[in-house]
Amino acid sequence: MSDLTSLDTEKPRRWHWLSEFVKDLRYRIWIIYRRLFSLVWIVNLAALLVVLLTPSVDREWLATIALLNLAVAITIRQDFVINLLFAICCSVPRSWPLAIRRRMAQVYHLGGIHSGCASAAVCWFAGSFAYSIKTRVNIHTSSLSIATLVLSGIALSLLLGMAISAYPALRKQYHNSFERVHRFFGWSVLVLVWVQSMLSIRDAKSPGNSFSETALKSPALWLLIVITMSIATSWMFLKRVPVDAEVLSEHAVRLHFDYTDASPGSFLRLSQRPLFEWHSFATIPMSKEKETQSKGCSVIVSKAGDWTSRQISKPPGQLWVRGVPTSGVMRVASLFRSVVLIGTGSGIGPLLGHIPSCRLRLIWSTPNPLQTFGQDIINQVHDADHHAVIHDTRALGRPDLVQMACRAMQEIEAEAVIIISNETVTRIVVGDMERRGVPAYGAIWDS
């Protein structure tokens, strides 16, 4: 493998700044997530152009395009759809060229489609509402009822509230509020749009047709069914399950579950108040030597806030779970013949959740690993990789994870790097490795 630490030194020095700028633009700003977001908006702008060039556009088309965007935005976040997309992309054989496999591994950026379609839906709803008001004011014989307009206005206001709360800076600072706004405003919008759509169908019904005939021919009805089922399906799997809590230290607890199996690279949603807050944790499949029962998995929870602190100080006997174990970024490790896995702190959980089926080098950076996580976790790390690097930051200080990753890649001739860490470290490592031409993957914090 070539020297990964070199950065285009053969290029003329006067063009070095331009090369660095292009790399920053491509690997740190113009990431796949934003490309998908932009692609969605390009498609919607093309649709807008068609609408503007159409002599007599019908209000129903504006509402239909809005609902279509909303349906895609919601469906792409549905557990079964996510698992299906990961299964398709991760089924690519390792014998295929790395260029194809590294693109398939970008499947976890699908949130770009969600945010793109959701924001476009808000704009289309706004356009539909404005067009409806214009029609009502200018055409006094319009069949559009006042009730339909009022409900449309309320639904649009709630959608705008959801869009504002989802702005990255606000979402990160007020995440619990964002989650509640997204949930309760979203449910309210769904009810309002159902009623508003039925009223619109009634308003548009011709004298010779029944309401049911008109409804069955309306795209809005079928799109609303898709949206409703996508939202409801996750809650159909809501249940309270027993938890066997293993306190590792005053900073971490391991929660064991026996209600389901979890595939490598998946995560669970856990809650004590299912209507108000949910927390996602990567799963660790049951160790083969401990398979005394038919099902089981565990998660590691480290102290990172009020909720996680409570789980450690007062270990739960039961927790609510929703949906099914859902594929996450670690799932893409199966695409590569050899991979470097990097974790910091409790990020070791997702790494242990990847059953090694290829050559790997595991790098774990954390303060006091033995005291914080216990000997069992240390043993599992070494079982996964006999040459694993466990860096005690309390004793050795903060490591240069990029340089450690470069050395590890050369040692095992790895094809990719996957990191599970906090947002800042993840962006640095992924960005720097990508600038070196190395496929690198990590969470993108888009929800």
UniProtKB/TrEMBL annotation:
It comes from the Eukaryota. The chain crosses the membrane at residues 36-55, 61-86, 107-133, 145-169, 181-199, 219-238. The keyword Transmembrane applies. The keyword Zinc-finger does not apply. Keywords: Membrane, Transmembrane, Transmembrane helix. PANTHER family: ENZYME, PUTATIVE (AFU_ORTHOLOGUE AFUA_8G01222)-RELATED, TRANSMEMBRANE PROTEIN. This is NRPS-like enzyme.
